[in-house]
Design a protein that fits this description.
single chain, alpha+beta, 3-stranded antiparallel sheet, 4 helices, globular
Length: 154
Amino acid sequence: MIVTDHSPSSPAEKHRGAPDLQQAWGGISGLQAGFTAVAAEARTRGIDIAQVSGWMARATADLVGLAHKGRLEVGADADLILYDPARPQTLRADRFAHRHPLSAYDGLALQGAVVDAVLRGKILASDEDASPRGRFLRGPGATARGAEQAGAGA
């Protein structure tokens, strides 16, 4: 499976202790770029989009016990992205729906783009408005306190 660590932080937090990277805030804001970056790189290695989707959706949902997520099956939520593998794009941090426009992917040119997002069958975003909204999902064994802590930095 492939997952992202969406860890937004301010430029000051990212540059804390510079030039010692061990002192910087860990993780990057990669939620909006993760699928596109992985899909583009997988394509260069001959890995098809179905495999990438399995790694990034179903395998992750299965790990955390969300049987209604990450799959196209009767009874599952209709959560989808519409991906155009032929569409070139250059990722721009200032177009991401992040609190701070800071991304390791800024300026990265890729072949392929997510053009729409669908949550439980409802279209959330298109490339004109790339700021989908969702909610925090808890798997089995998660606590409300843990959910509050996990959502605090987003």
